[in-house]
Amino acid sequence: MAVAMAGVATSLPLLSEVATGPGTSEAATTASKASEGFQVTESLVAHVRDVGSGDIHLFVGERQIVLNDPALARALFRATR
């Protein structure tokens, strides 16, 4: 299941709630707090490759970042429902 989002999680109200809601991982909460005051200058796409294992690939400009965060993967998936 792929989930895509543009911008930083806190720049979108729904994804801001996902990033800081109950059961959210520490990494997502930290990322949400760290992004305060940042201005989006290039697209950010999150590809959830496997919700169960938490395999998430972030694409920012031409960079790729691989995360393993089951709680964040579940939260992103729930946001699509």
Question: How many independent structural domains?
Answer: 1
The helical percent reads: 25-40%
Instruction: State the distance separating the first and last CA atoms.
Output: 12 Å
Q: What's the number of extended β-strand segments?
A: 3
Continuous helix count: 3
Shape: globular
The share of residues in extended strands comes to 15-25%
Low-confidence stretches: 1-14
The main β sheet shows up as: 3 strands, antiparallel
Global structural class: alpha+beta
Helix-strand sequence: HHEEEH
Strand order, largest beta sheet: 1-2-3
Q: Which value, in Å, is the CA radius of gyration?
A: 11 Å
Overall mean pLDDT stands at 74
Features:
single chain; alpha+beta; 33% helix
Q: Can you give me a brief rundown of this structure?
A:
With 81 residues, the chain is α+β, with helices and mostly antiparallel strands. 33% of the residues lie in helices and 23% in strands. Strands 1-2-3 form a three-stranded antiparallel β-sheet, covered by helices on one side.
